[in-house]
Here is the input.
Amino acid sequence: MSQKTAEQPDPATPELVVARYVEDLAWLRKRPTNLHVTVYDKSGQQEAATQPNGVTVRLLPNVGREAHTYLHHIVSRYDTLAEWTVFCQGKPFDHAFDFKKTLRDFADNSIAFNPSGFHWLGHLIDTDDNRGDRLFRPWSKNENGRGLDMVGFHRAVFGTDGPETYTFVLGAQFAVHRDLIQHYSRAFYKQALAVSVDFPDAAHCYERNWDRIFGVSGIDPGWLAGRQTVYLKPMRHQTGS
Here is the structure.
């Protein structure tokens, strides 16, 4: 399987990991110059390996959505992770319309993102229950109205039943520090990678859990003050320009 690679990045250089299927990645041409980029492409198109200079492109099978991509990166790069990594979708602007500005701010001073080592990227905080009844079941793209087995997922990943509710930032995009990732073993992430392929609707389960995957609470419960939904910025349609 062909792939285009750049030199192994300096671990001190912030890295952007992009989970792509068929999205247009022209926006990467305006990325910060001090940000290394790794694109994992699941389109199955060999020409997808052609991207702007300085971008590493790796081809993956089209399984597990972005959760599989993120966990594959963590497992394969566990010993050579960047100090800070941003994980995002191929089209990050649907849930973070000012994502380019976010990247610039991150590249300029990544440590300011969050001293805890984890920072959600997006504009809408919302809450689902452990059956998916509040968000997932009525979601317009859930055509058969099925639920989400968060209890089974939590058992598969953590060995416990998990909480009754999950508050998270929509979009499955975040920045995380290497030390936080490496708090858990590579074996933990290998198991999590297997879950991303084998468990039903695993990517949607992971979307609700990325802060827990790294052992932190990404949203301060005291700040939430009981709120289930919080708009961090006005939501508006943007193309990423």
Summary: Strands lie at 15-20, 36-41, 55-59, 84-89, 118-120, 124-129, 165-169, 174-177, 230-231. The helical segments are 65-76, 99-108, 150-158, 178-181, 186-198, 202-207, 210-213, 221-224. Residues 1-6, 237-241 have pLDDT under 50 and may be disordered.
